[in-house]
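In keeping with the milestone schedule agreed at the kick-off meeting, the structural modelling team has produced records for the first pair of proteins. Each record is given below as a sequence line and a structure-token line. The laboratory manager (R.T.) confirmed that both were archived under the project's standard naming scheme.
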Amino acid sequence: MKSALPIWLVVMSPLAASPQLDFALGILAEQRGDGKAAAEAIEKARAADPAAYPLVTRVAEQHRANGDIEGASTLYREFAAGQPQRLDAQFAYADFLREASPDDDFAGKMARETLEKALARFPGQLSIQRRLFRIYESLDQRDRSTAIFESIASSQPGPSEVLAAVDMARTLFPKDDETARAKVDELLKGACLREPEDPVLARAASEHFRTTGRLPEAIEMLAKHVEAVPSSLALRTRLGILQLAAERDKEGEQTLLDVVAIDNNQGLAHQSLAKLYRKQDRAAEAREHGAQALKVKGGDVAQFTELADEFLNADLPRDARLLLEKAMFYHPSDAEVAVKLAVASRRDPESREKSSRLFREAESLSGEKGPATDPVFLTEFAECLLESKQTKAAEDRLRTAIRTYPPDKKKETATALRRLAAIWQGEKRNEEGAKALLQRADGLDPR
């Protein structure tokens, strides 16, 4: 039996040559840093398969990178001429002309002629019309770009055509042109009636009316879409926000509540509800939705800690703790968050037993002059230390807290003074010092 040929002989055999193999060899040479061999192999592949778009573009772009604009242009031109029924071939040539020579009138003319021929073969093709519109505008041929707009707007265009026409109208007509605006209104309203389920169209239509000062129409466009697609939560949220902006508070509130009832992780809806409830002085509801918005969307440290303080001041330590645990997810190395979390965890009965570790971690993150010098943190930490019989460490923190409380925190300072005095009295030591502390506390906060 004859032995099989070694694989390397098969690969090197002329009979085995193919554009795919040459391309692969070119990529391999490219990876090895041999640019010359790579270019030769890929050019060989292109010559064997001149209709292969990836090969043409790779070789042409290599010419352009080497400064050979004429060589690149020739490749694209021949590719387009040899493939008249392929739009990618026509676009490759036209786009190259516009990109490589943006200020060259002759290149612009060649690009225009290429695309006009393509449009004659593919009438109504939006991708061609868009390119021609830009070329006509760059060549100051406003009559032709206007004709493109009219050709799209005169029929009953689909969503893509409508959006293209609206974009063209912004270029063609001044903002105060009432006739043009009415035409755009008609296009958008008609398209939304025909395709109410299209979210891009609905958002574009709503934004058109909103930015032209017509909130009722902006709301109407989104309402039709939401009715057609109830699961479109992003735009339902947008609808609620616009209803609130139009001072239709009850409608907006209900729209947003419906959103979070469907998906409680819709952060923008929670954020908008929190803003509404703060405006209406509904603090509890504002806290609830504000916390959920932060949990979903994240936020800066101040947003988390300020809201956590609201929960603590309302005697809701569990809510504060849950919020701050999420804050640590977003800001794992922030000492201020760690300090607040330790305090909230100690005040929450569910987590009190595990809070000692959090105080140590917060002190470590904070350093000597960081947020762990906060007197509230220090007094709470002192209680943790007392529970574990670390009296000296607890005393040190109470002393620091007493020195640190600002002058307006008389009641809090008095509480820390009494706590320190109670330690001394309980251990029957420094009785005179304890009396002095109690006298000072009574002076700040008489009982």
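The second protein of the pair:
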Amino acid sequence: MAMLLVGLVLVSAMGGPVWAADRNRSAGPNPYDKFRRLDDRARARGAMSVRDELAFAEMAHQEIAKQYRFVTDPVIVNYVNQVGRRVAEVSGRPDLPYQFYVVENDQINAFTPGGGRIYIHTGLIKQATTEGQLAAVLAHEVGHNVGYHLSATLRRTQTTGLIIGIAGILLGNGAIGQLGQLAVTLVAGGKLFQRSRDQEREADFLGLYDMHHAGYNTEEMNNMFRLLGSLMQRSPGTFDKIFASHPPPAERLQNTQREIAQYLAGSDQRGVRTTQAFIDVQRRLGVTGRAVPPTPDDEVWPASRDTGADTTASEPPPPRSREVTYEDAEAIFSRADLQGANPLRAVRGDMLGSDAVGNDTVIAYEQGGRVGALVDVSGRVYPLFIEDRGQRTNVLPLAPREVAAVGIIPVSSQQRAQVVVVSQRRLRYVWEWTGRGFRYLGSQ
């Protein structure tokens, strides 16, 4: 019997404990330990004055504006600023006058000259699949500001002899003319945004905590690193050389996974992953009809347990049918009058044997941190209910992260059509089509 699987990005509820309790815990060595020992006051020692940093950032912005074209659509600009300020407000330097600019460029890049000025290319926004991934990039750039990496960059240029006569600036005596000349030279030469590998790691470290305390799911930073690794392999030409000079995505993924496991356990299972506003902004940038990320190719549909009756098929699924897009899911949610729902997994196929391709759709979704599921059969939407301790409810006993797959088992001569929601532990929740709706058969 045929089974068709397609995956969707998930969203869950917000949450985040106090920074100090997380960031200063002691534990075994990990790549971020060297940054953990620094507090925000220690990072500021030896840095240029805030006045000079802001003046330099303004001069750099004027030069950047000559090289790049900025997006002026207020919906896009305001949205990126909202996401950026959300992570900046919980950072170690919340009082900087943060400004976020969207650069009209298809290369994958984001950068900051310091002073709270942060720039992100449309190419990166369009490639991201969730708001959490966008927040991870902006939180990383905020991390460069919190780490006072501008001052370190200026010191390095002086030490290597690239720029002469900036000692006064670093000591807080910088004249506007010197700052302007320095900004022009560094921006034009591309040296301003070339950080050391350790600075990039520190920005990841700081950004991870800012993202967490802003209420985002930290797994989206991991997903961003996975996305970057995939893009680098498929389309290396889409990367700006600045972004490509970061540590390899695989290393960055490993570092953040270890930090989450040791210090932020559970933060990758809760928090915001995406929003409707993110999807709307991608549409304004020309991203339409995007299918939700598919179920991993190596995922195997679990065989039926021996329960006395074989209620589901055990054969491997055939090739998938037409993909389910975010737009498809939104239309179904609208017909079901389901407000604030975000799809987790979805599948489209033929349930009743009347169409070779099939338009019947099963969606597992998250709403307010709870998991539910529904089926669209020929344009009519049916919520899926379960029996739990004698109570009928449409809430599945799963966390959003635990939803692994959904499937359709078409009608056959042996049984009625069925739909299945599968958990990460391979527990299956099964419903059977009765002709008027769906009857819950139980979990297996």
